[in-house]
Amino acid sequence: MSKHDVTIVFEDGRSVKIQADEADTIYLACLKNKIRILTECLEGTCATCKGLCVEGEYWLDDYVKGALSDEEAARREVLTCQMRVTSDCVIEFAYDSHLAMNSEPEARPASVVAVEQVSSTVVRLDVALADGAAAPDFLPGQYVNLSVPGASERRSYSFANAPGADGPSRFYIKVLEHGVMSEYVSGRAQPGDGIEMTGPFGRFYLRQPTRPLLMIAGGTGLAPMLSMLDHMAATGMTGRTVHLLCGANHPDELFGLDRIRSYGDKGIELTAEFAVVEPNDGWEGAVDHVTGLLRDELIAGGPDIYLCGPPPMIEAGESWLAAQGVERTLIHAEKFVPS
């Protein structure tokens, strides 16, 4: 029997990737990997083991309709005690990871490879795991917690590279006054510094594109979008149009522009628009918050929508989309909180 990668994502954002044999139910595959997902009957009658298969192909053994209705099955809700996968899958559970796992997320030793100021307020930090170990398995859009060298604190940052990419993991860090990681990357960071990477985490990640994509990024909220776009390019997901809206306070805060332009050469049909709140004399783009670029034509095709940025941006974007009647299931959002 074939084996497939199955990523389990819990309500608290912790995710873990396991391998599942086609002959095993997901419940059994998890048990073999020391993950005790919630269940009672193991016969498809109680619905305790219910999850949502976000991506991938599967089939279900017999179950009773009282445990999983036709409407729930159509939404790809699954009874994992009766579920057998036939491809790589992503499954979400609506409860925290500590209910299924006794262990804490692994803190992997790593080191700083490169530090570069890429805009007036953003620093690029490249990190490689010790002994050349591969980066943790993550979904494009997810994040890890990084320890702050010389301090006892950790901060969360989204990957800005595709899963499985060669080379170090890449992160973009907004430099804030009195920010503990900001003070490190802008003042004393050096290649070779020891750092720990814990994760991955997050329910904000790329779903298998089946419709056009609309991405709205504020500031370093661009990082997970770059991870998604890199993954799409690397895996041949080039059949869907992508419209990227990117915003900052000032033109000199924008970053990653060459990288954004390069996606067209990689087969992605990408249109990008930029907005700043306070322009300079040479600025030729829109003068507005990034959510001011939203308009009816961008949602006419019923796209999957990804928003990432500071809380006011997310709230403004979600409010506008709700007012236009966009289905909540099409909207995926992650708030970046300054720290």
Question: How is the secondary structure organized here?
Answer:
Layout: E1 3-9, E2 15-21, H1 26-32, E3 50-55, E4 58-60, H2 70-74, E5 77-79, E6 83-85, E7 89-92, E8 107-117, E9 122-129, E10 143-147, E11 154-158, E12 169-174, H3 180-188, E13 194-201, E14 213-218, H4 222-235, E15 242-248, H5 257-262, E16 270-276, E17 286-287, H6 296-299, E18 304-309, H7 311-323, E19 331-335
Parallel strand pairs: 1-7, 14-15, 14-18, 15-16, 16-17, 18-19
Antiparallel strand pairs: 1-2, 3-5, 3-7, 4-6, 8-9, 8-13, 9-12, 10-11, 10-13
Proportion of beta-strand residues: 25-35%
Give the terminus-to-terminus CA distance.
47 Å
The class by helix and strand makeup works out as alpha/beta
Q: Count of DSSP E strands?
A: 19
CATH topology-level fold name of the largest domain: Rossmann fold
CATH architecture descriptor text of the largest domain: 3-Layer(aba) Sandwich
Helix % is: 10-25%
Q: Regarding CATH, which class of the largest domain?
A: Alpha Beta
Largest sheet: 6 strands, antiparallel
Order of helices and strands: EEHEEHEEEEEEEEHEEHEHEEHEHE
